[in-house]
TrEMBL record:
Protein name stated in the entry: Membrane protein
UniProt region (Disordered), positions on chain: 1-28
InterPro entries assigned: DUF3105
Biased composition (Basic and acidic residues): 1-27
Keywords: Membrane, Transmembrane, Transmembrane helix
UniProt-listed Pfam families: DUF3105
Keyword Transmembrane helix among UniProt keywords: yes
Transmembrane segment boundaries: 32-54
């Protein structure tokens, strides 16, 4: 009888030991799985963070490159050759509309101002010196394009717009030392020119006023 009891105790202890081993094996597997999952999560986060940083850098580099690249078709004049004297006498400019040169001491208001009539060049040039983009249009410009450009100018500080009857191009955009000619208001280069040259790097006097100047009579 004692032998049977001893056998039963041994069997019970063996089952308990086996259960403990199985439990320990489960714990080891669970820990291994947890560690593997943690490593995978960390790796994914590190990878995502690296991707975000690389993506931001690529976008920044692309923006810098775009800012430095000229707008396709634009004309450029050497800023050093453009006079910047304030004069009270008429100025004969070598380009129409002018993109720089000696000018009136008073600027045209250029806080999104849309002028229905021609404005004095000598005052508009002073606005360009302050970093404004001057949008002009000739008689060939369609009314829809004129209206679309007027809407864009009206909501854009450091811009102004007026008709120039004698200009060669249908629609022309001028900044200090820069000029672009397009046929339609929806030409993507219009937005590019605005982005690049409204208070752009070409500006001789960045941050100077575009209000309290000369207004349309």
């Amino acid at each position: 009888m004692a032998s049977r009891t001893s056998h039963d105790n041994n069997s019970r202890q063996a089952r308990i030991a086996e259960m403990r081993r199985a439990e320990q094996s489960r714990d080891r597997r669970n820990k291994a799985l947890a560690i593997t999952a943690s490593v995978a999560v960390v790796a994914a986060l590190v990878g995502f963070g690296a991707w975000v940083m690389i993506d931001k850098k690529e976008k920044k580099d692309a923006a810098v490159a775009a800012a430095k690249a000229p707008v396709n078709g634009e004309q450029t004049w050497d800023a050093k050759t453009l006079g910047r004297n304030h004069v009270e006498t008429p100025v004969k400019y070598p380009m129409n509309p002018p993109v720089g040169g000696d000018h009136s001491p008073r600027w045209m208001n250029c806080n999104g101002d849309v002028y229905k009539n021609a404005i004095p060049e000598v005052n508009a040039v002073h606005s360009l010196e302050h970093g404004a983009v001057w949008v002009t249009y000739g008689e060939k410009a369609a009314k829809g394009d004129v209206d679309a450009l007027a809407a864009t100018v009206a909501k854009t500080p450091y811009t102004l717009m007026s008709p120039v009857k004698e200009q060669a191009g249908t629609i022309m955009l001028s900044a200090w030392g820069k000029q672009l000619t397009v046929d339609k208001a929806d030409d993507p280069r219009v937005a590019q020119f605005f982005t690049k040259y409204v208070q752009g790097p070409q500006t001789p006097e960045p941050g100077a006023a575009c209000t309290n100047g000369l207004a349309e009579k």
